[in-house]
Amino acid sequence: MKIYIIINGCSNDCEKQMRMQQAFARKAHLDLKKAHTIIICDREMDGDGKLKLAEMAPTKSVLFVVLKFYNPEIILDDLSRRVERNSLCIFGSGFSGQELSVRLGARMGGCSLIDVLSLSKQDDKYVAEKMVYSNHMKATYKLTKSPFCISICKSQEESWEAYEQEHEVEECYVWNDSFEVKEPVKEYVEEKSSLEDCQFVVVAGRGAGNKEKIRQLQQLSEEMGAEFGISRPAAMNAWAPMDRLVGVSGVMLKSQICIAAGISGSPAFYAGIDKSRFIVAVNTDERAPLMKKADIAVVGDCCEVLSELAGYISKKTE
């Protein structure tokens, strides 16, 4: 099985990510002799920067995938062609690592897990551990379908030892002019999600229907002065960034008001909003589990209901 260490060189903490990756691989007793390090970077990274990252790589093989600008779609297109199906892909702990690991696993028909604390191998499968319930409990997951795409947890320790042989370094330039952005996008590490301590939160789920509806709900949330989150199914569809995820795999809310829009209400999700003081559930399915647990249940299209609510709040604040 091939092993790929994948680093986001566009991040402002890429050297730290490299040290964390090396510590994780050593702790997991991974055989890195035939493994590959893939470093994603933009054309602004100079030769000295590339040399330093190459020297820190825990594998002999180092490939720089050079982009005009950071764009997940371009990266995923390249990785899905480059990565072998029978492989383990280890991404960093930042948001980009979480997003790319989940989306690559889905795109290649494998499995994914974010914020992995430790990894071990059983037969030809991997067993991973991660913290859940706001780090109060450790859960064990069996990864059964390759490629196995994981991102390591933010609390992973760091270590670095120079590779014993000279690295074999290559560069690959990936241009795709069909994707347009106004300016290069850099990832910067945030210490804490703004959701956790927010008093008014709207959380949208798969019941919204599609990515455009999720964007509409996010805009309505902003108009109402609320923060915006998503359920796990919406996150798995890449309808919004992973740092907006609410539930045992993401943020545990303590808000005064939480509006759950288009969410059936699995136990894993409900644990993420249970400490909210007042819960409103909006769903077209009156039999959805969350409709019985909420303080108020509204049967209807979530976009239409929130649009009316946003208009009412706007009139009240004029």
Describe this structure in words.
By secondary structure, this protein is of the alpha/beta class. Helices cover 30% and strands 28% of the residues. The protein has nine helices and 15 strands. The protein has helices at residues 14-27, 47-56, 72-82, 95-107, 211-224, 232-236, 267-273, 289-293, 302-317, and strands spanning 2-8, 36-42, 61-67, 87-91, 111-116, 118-122, 125-132, 137-143, 148-152, 168-174, 200-204, 227-230, 257-261, 278-283, 296-299. The strands form three sheets. It has a seven-stranded parallel beta sheet, with helices on both faces. The protein has a five-stranded parallel beta sheet with strand order 12-11-13-14-15. A three-stranded antiparallel beta sheet has the order 6-7-8, with no helix packed on it. α3 crosses α4 (95-107).
Describe the secondary-structure layout:
Elements: E1 2-8, H1 14-27, E2 36-42, H2 47-56, E3 61-67, H3 72-82, E4 87-91, H4 95-107, E5 111-116, E6 118-122, E7 125-132, E8 137-143, E9 148-152, E10 168-174, E11 200-204, H5 211-224, E12 227-230, H6 232-236, E13 257-261, H7 267-273, E14 278-283, H8 289-293, E15 296-299, H9 302-317
Parallel strand pairs: 1-2, 1-4, 2-3, 3-10, 4-9, 5-9, 11-12, 11-13, 13-14, 14-15
Antiparallel strand pairs: 6-7, 7-8
